[in-house]
Amino acid sequence: MAFFAFKQASGGDREFVFELKDEGRIAKARKILSGEETSEVHVMGRFRKESKEYNPGFSYHLDPDTVYFFSYAIEVCDANMNYLEEHLDEAGGAFLPGAYWCPWDSRLSREIEA
């Protein structure tokens, strides 16, 4: 298991921390951070309306089993991390259907050291 953080250009200085359990996805995240992977660099997954201690300031988290990296995604899953926090009660229906979140401007910022 490993923890990573991403930022959004539209999110200011805030970071969103997420957990990865899959060794292949952990390796891919490290390749993104090293600059080796330059195509599939944005974060996508299903959010759960539950806070996690590793991601302070947010009332939701990404389900580690659903996180992967993408180049392009449909617009319906794009949202700013702050906007999602502010409208979490509406999320999962017409807003971010199926609880899938794919912030287009997400960029990995670092791996969180244990």
From TrEMBL:
Residue ranges of domain BP74 N-terminal in the record: 2-113
InterPro entries the UniProt entry points to: BP74_N (IPR056422), cAMP-inducible_BP74-like (IPR053344)
Coiled coil: none
Protein name per Swiss-Prot or TrEMBL: BP74 N-terminal domain-containing protein
Organism listed in the record: Kineosporia babensis
